[in-house]
Amino acid sequence: MTEQDVKLNFETMEAGDFKAFVKAMADYITEYLENIRDRQVVPSVKPGYLRPLVPEQAPQQSEPWTAVMADIERVVMSGVTHWHSPRFHAYFLTASSYPAIVADMLSGAIACIGFSWIGSPVCTELEVIMLDWLGQMLGLPEQFLARSGGEAGGVIQGTASESTLVALLGAKARIMQRVKEQHPEWTDSDILSKLVAYCSKQAHSSVERAGLFGGVKMRCLKTDNKRRLRGDIFQEAMDEDINKGLIPFYVVATLGTTASCTFDALDELGDVCLSRNVWLHVDAAYAGSAFICSEYRYLMKGVEKADSFNFNPHKWMLVNFDCSAMWLKQPRWVVDTYYMDPLYLKHDQQGLAPDFRHWQIPAGRRFRALKLWFVLRMYGVENLQKYIRKQIALAHLFEKLCTSDNRFEIIEEVTMGLVCFRLKGSNEINEELLRRINGRGKIHLVPSKIEDVYFLRLAICSRFSEESDSHISWEEVKISADEALAQK
Ligand SMILES: Cc1ncc(COP(=O)(O)O)c(C=O)c1O
């Protein structure tokens, strides 16, 4: 066997091939995204559709990139739900932009693991700086930022769910230490069995799950008539629990709930937390991006009273998944409590810069700050603000179209890019309406239910969305309503 044979066996792609592949892929991606609204938003395939389209086994011999490329439409696109189509209105949006896609390519090329500073110094240091940039863009108080010179700072987590859990674990560590000082005779399990955390009934399901993962009780509290968790409701719940011998230690305030995008009364919750030494975590997963526009900052009034804050640039700030920004005023409660420092991860500069593995659940971490750096530089704050404002304006346009038809009602004030609406009448007619909308296949929506009222959620999800798209979506809703009501 010649040296060349050996090389070919292992090295199936030469640099020249790679360049051609990337160029072809760049063309494909651009074509795909720029024409995305022409594709059927949800594919009409059934579970198991894929198996007949691919071989039973992996190929024994290498295939050229052109063969893979030729299969993308047939194998991949036939099963894609097009989240970036202006016809996609389900859930909340997930971000995508050209600068972030290219940054992910470079991240893939560097392919470092940033678990420690020495694992790739730039991976850690760019992240620290990007989180300072982002924090300033949002108007977060300096006490959250690394540039303030204290221990505080930001970190990129994978998801908002992880941030809620990390904050809960920090809060748990803090209360355990306090209670042990007051009651040295109590065991860890004595204390654990008394701990209680809180959130609103409207909090994301990941908050309840954080309680399960953390092994503590999580009470989901009722809200006021605007679906906001208020200070007095929270205080009352805590008093009740304290009377039962329990120990309140953690609350999650949601800014922009998943079901209908309402905002807990952060300022009130903050006062209660300060008076009771309870850790306040802010989950602004979706709506947090809007705080780069100063006119929406009233919704985060009281943020200085929080211990930790989180939002997802991977939702509404054009940074592809995953990029969930989290700030901690006192990361020591997470870093010191769950500290593991095996010899192979030690380095000479320890203590002079964060080793981010201590701030998160997994050990490994990708170079995600690159995506932020590319997006923030190539859009600039002003364009990101324009983007947020435009999407909110498109939601208001849909709201206006909806209110112009007296068969419909808006069931929640529209503050961000989400419109919650329904046909006046029963839940059943609205279920039928959604079945028809999604059944027609032109646009895609998901429902929600609050206090037994079923409604439809229309989220503006695509960076390509224009006014004409809101009109098209409204036409689809109207036609489906005509059909649903005629059938009734
Ligand atoms: C308010 C809120 N919190 C948390 C999440 C979960 O986000 P992630 O998928 O980043 O965990 C969502 C998802 O939409 C959300 O709306």
TrEMBL record:
EC class, as a word, reads lyase
EC assignment: the record states 4.1.1.28
- Keyword Chloroplast attached: no
> Which positions carry N6-(pyridoxal phosphate)lysine?
315
Q: Name one GO cellular component term.
A: cytoplasm
Q: From its record, what is one biological process in GO terms?
A: catecholamine metabolic process
The protein's UniProt keywords, in alphabetical order, are: Catecholamine biosynthesis, Decarboxylase, Lyase, Pyridoxal phosphate
One family from Pfam that matches here is: Pyridoxal_deC
Q: Which InterPro entries match?
A: Aromatic_deC, PyrdxlP-dep_de-COase, Pyridoxal-P_BS
Which top-rank group of organisms is this from?
A: Eukaryota
One GO molecular function term of this record is: pyridoxal phosphate binding
Q: Which cofactor does it need?
A: pyridoxal 5'-phosphate
Summary of subunit composition and partner proteins: Homodimer.
- Which family is this protein grouped under? Belongs to the group II decarboxylase family.
What name has this protein been given in UniProt? Aromatic-L-amino-acid decarboxylase
